[in-house]
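Limitations
The structure tokens in this dataset are predictions for the assembled complex, not deposited experimental models. Users should treat interface geometry with appropriate caution, especially where small molecules or nucleic acid strands are included. An illustrative entry is reproduced here so readers can see what is and is not provided.
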Amino acid sequence: MGCSISIEALTVGYGGIPLVREIDIRLKQGEILTLIGPNGAGKTTVLKSIIRQLTPLGGAVCLRGTRLEQFSDGDLARTVSAVLTQRLKTEMMTCREVAATGRYPYTGRFGRLSARDKRAVEEAMELVGVSELADVDFTKISDGQRQRVMLARAISQEPEILVLDEPTSFLDIRYKLEFLSALQQLSREKGLTVIMSLHEIDLAQRISHKIACIRGDKLDRLGSPEEVFTQGYIRELFHVTDGGCEERTGALELPAPKGSPRVFVLGGNGTGIPVYRRLQREGIPFAAGILWENDLDYPVACLLAAEVVHVRAFAGVGEQEMRRARELIERCSRVICTLKKEETGDWYRAELSELLAYSGEVHRDEKGL
Amino acid sequence: MKRSRCVCGFMILVLLLFAFFAANICAGSVRVPLRDVLEILLGKEREAVFRDIVTEIRFPRALSAGILGGALALSGYLLQILFDNPIAGPFTLGISSGARLSVALVMVVFLGNSAEPGFGVMIMAAFAGAMISMGFVILMSRFMDSASMLIVSGVMIGYICSAITDLVVAFADDADIVNLHNWSKGSFSGIGWSHVAVMFLTVSAAVLAVFFLSKPIGAYGLGEAYAQNLGLDVKKFRILLVLLSSALSACVTAFAGPVSFVGIAVPHMVKYLFRTARPAVMIPACFLGGGVFCLGCDLLARILFAPRELSISTVTAVLGAPVVILIMAGKKQKGDIR
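Predicted assembly:
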């Protein structure tokens, strides 16, 4: 299949002042593209230009090989539908009536719904799971439900391209997942091309075929999530100075407590994470070790600990690491061990039990081991 | 269930329309029994005084109250849609007052030259005045994001126009004043059949045009961005709304002077009666509702202190203003008003 949408050297902005310059994106039919970037980077501006609510300052958007300007209003409405951040204004309208507004480009002069129109509306509501809300007043439902009715509205418009501006902002985790899985279903089954902006980096990573990062006045990176989210990129993209983000999981951490470590956490296998976070909340700088780089605790420790004694994945522990760990244990006023013995009564690694024993010697007179 | 509510609503409005219409014809300083009215209409011989009162005075007056009331309500409905503001109306936005000023000026000029201005001239003058006020309000709405500020600026324009109109009326020649004075306060009196014919044609053309816009009105009501996404040419549609709502309120002002509160109050009352805001229902319902409201108010204006006649705005304000207050209170509770 050919390019469903191609954006060529698109420059967008308000009042003649360019906000984002020279964007080039090509999407195949059925692909999901997510725009990410800091607040005010121009994600919405780009989306608005794609749905022709804003005239581009340069370049072109082509749908199915036809330039956006050449579409008639009706044709465009039948090709692209949108879920925007603006509230949909309704007065005494049921959710079904709201969803049915998507049929506007298909109905006649007085907007009477045909049987086919009605079926399309019901199907759209079914798909996003709002059928049971059909007869409820649109203003009387929760923000999350409203967002899904808006999606149903956009789907009943039977577009080829769906444009969504921060569609998951109001949703709780369950609805976030449901909403995105509905999008995925649409892209897979109906070949719908989706272009959206998301603030949730973790979700963007999971659902998108392509990610476009807008930074400064340009498209900084474009590619698959794997290509885009390299180590440290999210911090760079969002100018994160306090705290950090783990690119592989999208998990966010608050900034690490400053200062030299006062506590040594002997952990691993995921047992350390709650302790790290607790120490962060209390504002106590700490060191963590010994962690293998493939340990669950390792990425979090990297973001939160003042120092991490680490070993390459699956590798043996060298003398250098052991020495450093001992030094840290001596310097800290306390050691917390989150590891438990194996069922056989042995430690997983001799090195760990050695360190534990060593801490016992150093901090004999203190509690909290 | 919704359908039956619609049917009921329309039946109530039509019944009320007939009832008020009949009451308007029968009641007044000279009472004419309903049977006599029917006989006069059927062409049977009756006293000439009665016949003249019924056919030459009351019939055209009641018809014009119905038509112009409908036009006002519809104009208010369109303005509420256009500005996305529940208390917009030809009066609150200063459009009626603009039309009134312009008509007063034209009248004074014509009467000063001892000529009677024709209907065409009157309507055109009113339309021009309405458009000038409208232009100003639209300009203000560019700068002001707040719905209440828009209304404040509209009301201010209204006051300025009214002040100038009063000035014009005060300096007009004595003989003209009687004529101008009545009109400038808002009244359905002194309307003849020829007036009715002209207003019927103008208003029905406008109403028909509005009805053909019912689908885009619904889309526009969702918000500009969504309307555009649904394929509506928002700019063109806005211009149409401006023209139609101005034409409707200009027509009213040209014939009856300023009539307040009908434009704001009636669309809301109708909305609650029908429990829907669908334009296809609202447009005819507003028109009927406005007609009923104005007929009722004109009846009160004539009979409350008969033979002394109140200006129509006195009655519409007393009945309409509480409705506006209720709307404001209700919207405030829902947090819809900024």
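Some entries come with short summary sentences. For this one: Chain A touches chain B at residues 51-53, 73-74, 76-78, 80-82, 84, 86-93, 97, 101-102, 104-105, 107, 109-111, 139, 157 (CB under 8 Å).
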